[in-house]
Amino acid sequence: MMNNNEMLLLKLGEVVLKGLNRRSFEDKLVSNVRRRLKNCGSFQIYIRQSTIYVEPATDSCDMEAAYAAARQVFGVVSVARAVPCEKTVEAIVETAKTYLAPAFAAARTFKVESKRADKHFYLNSIQISQAVGGELAEAFPNVAVDVHEPDLTVYVEIREKHAYVHAPSVPGAGGLPVGMGGHAVSLLSGGLDSPVSSWMMARRGVELEMVHFVSPPYTSQQAQDKVLELARLLTAYCGRMIVHIVPFTEIQEEIRKNCPEEYFTLIMRRFMMRLAEAVAKKAGAKALITGESLGQVASQTMMALGVTEDVTTMPVLRPLIGMDKVEIIRIAREIGTYDTSILPYEDCCTVFTPRHPCTRPNLEDVRKAESALDVDALVAKALEGETWVRVKP
Ligand code: ATP
Ligand code: MG
Fold first, then answer.
1. For residue 255, how many C-alpha atoms fall within 13 Å in the half-sphere facing its CB?
2. Element containing residue 44 per DSSP (H, E)
3. 49: left (phi > 0), else alpha (psi -120 to 50), else beta?
4. Whose C-alpha lies nearest to ligand 1, atom 11?
5. What is the pLDDT of residues 98-130, one digit of tens each?
6. Pocket of ligand 1 from Cβ distances under 6 Å
7. pLDDT of 4
8. Above 90 in pLDDT, residue 263?
9. Averaged over 239-246, what is the pLDDT?
10. Measuring from atom 30 of ligand 1, which residue has the nearest CA?
11. Quick check: 39 and 65 in contact, CB under 8 A?
């Protein structure tokens, strides 16, 4: 489907339901689309009647790339490639005939579906469909009209300035525009879960900043690079982000030296939450995000989660809490993080795993075990060693 005039129509999702906030949601979404499409060429991007119009301003625009990028912008429910034309039945028919010729060649049946956003247009939507459908049936005698289950649906939209012709739209990423849901720090490991949990919260409009804990020499440079690569993959959806790298070796060694083995992981997780909260506070973020899923491992039982959460007053968002691993893996594949996540580099969580972790921990017992450590000093020192990287699409 090549056409010099080809443009994109992006339909808004829940954004349209937001009442008085609608305006700011729309502005945010348009600016997110603009930013995401910057690398694909120069476009005119504007919004009318719950549709974002993306029109190439020059011949050098990469429409394939723009199409792919538009589908990754949260807040967009569907994306259609369309061609504008004059608002007459003749022009619409001519446009459909040339633009959709390959689609007609592949179809045995078709129908026309019309929408009249411009209520002053002289035909109503049923009349438009009849007129355009009749002419197209004549132009493509091998393709019959079938209004119930056609192979091809030709969409015609009559809007303010132009009519638009397009084939079926494809689903967009859904959700809400990034930036409308607040700002949170996501704990990103190299595993399968945390890229998915990050993506899910970004889809609800949350702007993300990442924190990753490293334990050299127990964890390798490759493990850290893998996490930066995961963050980079997420930027296609979330936009650019900062990844904070926090040294975790000393904390883990101190835990191993001074605490009972059955509590290793729990105490380690409590340190992660403290450090993440400190990073979040400094960044002005209002919540933490983890990839925890109830019952997945010993440190993710209900009681273990309670022990972990005990050290932070920030909301801890766990979008995977009720999901099965197969569902998480399906999303990881869909969003493109799966192949990177399964690269076999050790995470700090797997460095000192207890042989018999406590699955029904008592909070007081864990606190007592932890009191063997100088918690504040360890936290302060780890934060001093923090570095950060800005990751771009
Ligand atoms: P994942 O697949 O995300 O690694 P997991 O099933 O391996 O999760 P854990 O290793 O217990 O579970 O980690 C639980 C959560 O804690 C992770 O989803 C992530 O949010 C956070 N986390 C674990 N390790 C790290 C790390 N090295 N840096 C930052 N966050 C981490
Ligand atoms: Mg992990």
1. 29
2. strand 43-48
3. left
4. 299
5. 999 999 999 999 999 999 989 999 999 999 999
6. 187-189, 191-194, 211-213, 272, 290-292, 296-297, 299, 347-349
7. 64
8. yes
9. 96
10. 187
11. yes
Name which of 241, 217, 237 is nearest 227 in CA terms. 241
List, as one string, the DSSP characters of 280-349. HHHHT--EEE----TTSSGGGSHHHHHHHHTT--S-EE-TTTT--HHHHHHHHHHHT-HHHHTS----GG
Name the helix (H) or strand (E) containing 245: strand 241-247
**What CATH number is given for 7-171 in this structure?**
3.30.2130.30
Which ligand is located closest to the Cα atom of residue 230? Answer: 1
Q: Dig out the tokens for 343 from the structure.
A: 């690269």
Residue 68 Cα to ligand 1 midpoint, Å, equals: 30
Q: What is the CA(265)–ligand 2 centre distance, in A?
A: 12
Ligand nearest to the CA of 186: 1
pLDDT digits (tens, 9 = 90+) for 311-361: 999 999 999 999 999 999 999 999 999 999 999 888 777 777 888 888 899
Q: Look up residue 204 and give its DSSP letter.
A: B
| Atom nearest to 187 CA in ligand 1 | 30
183-391 in CATH: which number? 3.40.50.620
CA of 188 to the centre of ligand 1 (A): 6
Domain positions in the chain are 7-171, 183-391
Ligand 1 nearest atom to the CA of residue 214, by list position: 27
Q: What are phi and psi of 76, to 5 degrees?
A: -100, 120
Q: Residue 378 C-alpha to ligand 1 middle, in angstroms?
A: 20
Q: Considering every ligand atom, which ligand is closest to the CA of 188?
A: 1
- Residue-averaged pLDDT of the chain: 94
Distance in Å, CA 290 to ligand 1 centroid: 7
CA of 59 to the centre of ligand 2 (A): 46
> What residue spans of 184-263 are helical by DSSP H?
193-203, 221-238, 249-258
Question: What is the number of other CB atoms lying within 10 angstroms of the CB of residue 60?
Answer: 9
